[in-house]
Please model this.
Amino acid sequence: MKKIIYILIGLVVFTGCDDDFAEINSNPNIGVPPPETLFTYVQKEMVTYKNEGEWYHENHQKMTWAQYLVQGKANDSDINTILPGNKYNTFYVKIMNHLTEMRLQISELSDEEQKFYQKMVAASDVLQAFFALRVTDQFGDIPYSEAAMGRKEGKLDPNYDKQEAVLMQILGELNSAIQKMDENIASNYDFSSNDIVYQGDITKWIKCANAVKLRLATRLLSQNEAKAQEIITSVVSDGRLFESNDDQFTFDLGGTYRGSPGAGFEWKGVMWSAEPIIEFMKSTTDPRLRIFYEPNGYTQETIDEFADPSTISPAVDINNDNDVLYTTADGEEILGYRFIGLPAYRNDANIGIPDYYSFVDQPNAIGPAATMLSKYNRRLIQECNFQYGGLPQPEGNYVDVMLSYSEVCLMMSEFILKGYISGDAADWYRKGTESSLRTYNMLGEKQDLIMRVANKEYPYLPISEEEISNYLTNPSLQLNGTNDLEKVFIQQFLNFYRLPEEGWILSMRTGYPKYGSSLLARSATDDPEIPFPRRIPSPEPGDLNVAKWLQANTDQGFTSPRDETPSVLNSQRLWWDKNNPTIGSGGN
Model:
């Protein structure tokens, strides 16, 4: 019962209201846990695995929109329709209101005691700013400056702040948090045991705050470039940036998982790997390929089961697509045709050819019934204890890297190439690429990415130092004055595989991957191309605040706040996105 009360504190207006609910939100005498417990609770609730809707709805959709995956038999007809998911409610019902209550409790202490808790409060400001950015990214104008005032002040109809104002308030909170953490205080509360992410390490919290500021700056580049550059130069001047993978904003709770197996993730249909990204990763011998996706079942044993190998579908080109991608621990060479992606283009000529593609997922099958198309690595995406084809439940624990060293490095490379700051773009690019390889290897090892394919057990194969070296020196990936910015964006896109929301935002703000690229090309989905949503409508708040909600939608130029038509969600853009290029145009 207490847990329910904690969740209901404040912000009832965003989830619907009745008299009892309003009473809970305005009664300051309802008991709550101590501030440090609230801090820990928020960290647990903000991790993507915890709120299944993020993968069940939001990221499932964005993985297909960004073309990390293909839905059904070449992107079924409803690929661009939406189901909003839980991020909005998570922020208001589980994050912002609990952090507000934590700060309220501390504000009622003596000045000396408030100082004692100051650095934990500052860390909480970073948590809130990080998640608030994710919310305004897709919903635009949101209640922020007056939000979470229900319980203490009885404010059940907060104003909707303009997105630009929200971004500036987030920036101010991050700057203030850094100042609070910098202050020399004689005695500080040791919140290391309450801090899942950094165990109370203030230096790392400051680096994280600066990393969030850089991510925020990318949202301003097309609307207020001068302000974006000001933020970037201030962070560089401060100098406290992520320096290694040890600084990453990482949640490692142990033994936890993201969502449910099977239909829990594939609620719109079976999901397959996408041909464009598969072919690019094969062409560059990217070791992340075996972490992102599963090999198919076309082992030599399967090929031998065919009475005539010439009857094997041309989709599995055993004669030409046979470069060695890697060698397993037991000596099996994994050749190029073991990773087959499905075209993202609905009208691909081969889609209509009978038996050209086999849409069957049979991890225990050998021969003609074996799995042909590569699926996403289910234990990386869904849950650590996914059991392939009757394998014993593997060991390992779920880890979530919410803001990576790689992302920071690749942003720095982008900013240098665009002339916002000085520095060695190639060095930041190399560090970002290497960091991504090592981060995904860490995920592979911690999540124990064992699988079964063609009735054979495949233990996780760690990325070797030789593979890292070969990838970093691959001539086709070097910054050499030709398509340098595109190469940076491609590595950022690959790095965002586990953060597909960020991958989709990258596609919106940059136009990459672009159609017709000689590197990693975006594929047309249809002819004419179909529109994909660039925003998600904010939820209706209920009677107490519906007027302000309607006004906020009108102010943003939305013809109907309830309209989820893909073309409308594509053309009626949020403030931060108004001047961004068309997806696939490679325009920024």
The radius of gyration is 24 Å.
